[in-house]
């Protein structure tokens, strides 16, 4: 476990150095190191500290949040193909954000993350309440999440169809999932918001392990399943809602990272959660790096790159489960 974490941290540090140096204005790794130790020219410091470093840190935070949210979702729903979008969280955040953009005409954009998080929270509460029948079940939550997520997607399409062209363009960029707008304010707010949910999820690792076994085994071992499931969904909403609010809808990270982490450290969530967070951070940072360098100066949103990676990975998982079932 320790060796794996150290290896991932080293790989992530190297990736950060590459992301800080690569771009239209190239900065060598020596110059990047000099900037970080405050021994360099003002121009290099402007590019690295004010433009690229907030973008790198936002990618790390968003990726870690989505990965941990995906890990929790797979434990709660006992479904290896689940991710936060299956709970309708992404759909709720997208709907609230698009309505906010259309209603304000792009003004007061500093409140867009708040609108997105409010939408994610409202969707999670609605799904849990509507799936309650004396208690909850993973299957009812999945069906309700799929249904309400589809309803939110259809409503987003309707709002976009009647909005102003300028607002439509802004909404579509946000929906694609991008961190090009990163600044230090967004990074600070996201960091402060994520600390508590991360710690609470780590503290709830045993409960997540028990929920992964199924409702009946978990109850026989003394777990109050309904309360634990509601608590886990709340933490998942806090993480995924904050990530979506800060960077838009970046898909498949919550699906890929837990599977890769499980291959490395096994199913115990005390080990799985931090490793998945590191892998998710690396995935989003890599996606953003590819998106802004492959066809520079044209920039592709990170969400499009993760979709190109995640769709084949999803197919691979389906194919593997098909042979396992056979």
UniProtKB/TrEMBL annotation:
It is a multi-pass membrane protein. It comes from the Bacteria. GO terms for cellular component: plasma membrane. SUPFAM superfamilies: ABC transporter involved in vitamin B12 uptake, BtuC. Its main location: membrane. It is found in: Cell membrane. Keywords: Cell membrane, Membrane, Transmembrane, Transmembrane helix, Transport. GO terms for molecular function: transmembrane transporter activity. The chain crosses the membrane at residues 56-77, 84-105, 142-165, 185-203, 230-257, 269-290, 302-319. The keyword Transcription does not apply. One of its GO terms (biological process) is siderophore-iron import into cell. InterPro entries: ABC_BtuC-like, ABC_transptr_permease_BtuC. Belongs to the binding-protein-dependent transport system permease family. FecCD subfamily. This is Putative siderophore transport system permease protein YfhA. The lineage of its organism: Bacteria, Pseudomonadati, Pseudomonadota, Alphaproteobacteria, Hyphomicrobiales. The gene is yfhA.
């Amino acid at each position: 476990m320790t060796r794996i974490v150290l290896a991932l941290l080293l790989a992530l540090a190297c990736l950060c150095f590459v992301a800080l140096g690569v771009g239209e204005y190239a900065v060598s790794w020596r110059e990047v190191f000099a900037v970080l130790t405050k021994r360099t020219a003002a121009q290099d410091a402007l590019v690295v500290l004010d433009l690229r470093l907030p973008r790198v840190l936002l990618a790390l935070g968003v990726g870690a949040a989505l990965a941990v949210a995906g890990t929790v979702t797979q434990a709660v729903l006992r479904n290896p193909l689940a991710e936060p979008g299956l709970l309708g969280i992404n759909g709720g955040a997208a709907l609230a954000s698009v309505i906010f953009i259309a209603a304000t005409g792009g003004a007061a954009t500093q409140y867009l993350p708040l609108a997105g998080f409010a939408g994610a929270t409202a969707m999670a509460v609605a799904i849990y309440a509507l799936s309650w029948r004396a208690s909850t079940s993973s299957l009812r939550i999945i069906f309700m999440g799929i249904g309400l997520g589809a309803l939110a997607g259809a409503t987003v399409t309707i709002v976009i169809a009647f909005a102003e062209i300028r607002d439509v363009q802004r909404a579509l960029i946000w929906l694609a999932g991008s961190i090009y707008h990163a600044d230090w304010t967004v990074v600070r707010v996201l960091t402060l918001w994520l600390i508590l949910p991360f710690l609470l999820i780590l503290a709830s690792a045993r409960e997540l392990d028990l929920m992964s076994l199924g409702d009946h085994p978990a109850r026989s071992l003394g777990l109050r399943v309904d309360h634990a499931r509601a608590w886990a969904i709340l933490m998942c909403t806090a993480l995924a809602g904050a990530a979506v609010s800060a960077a838009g809808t970046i898909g498949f990270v919550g699906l890929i990272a837990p599977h890769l982490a499980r291959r490395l450290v096994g199913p115990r969530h005390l080990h799985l959660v931090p490793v998945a967070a590191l892998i998710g951070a690396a995935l989003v940072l890599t996606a953003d790096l590819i998106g802004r360098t492959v066809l520079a100066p044209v920039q592709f949103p990170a969400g499009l790159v993760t979709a190109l990676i995640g769709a084949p990975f999803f197919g691979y998982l389906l194919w593997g489960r098909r042979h396992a079932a056979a």
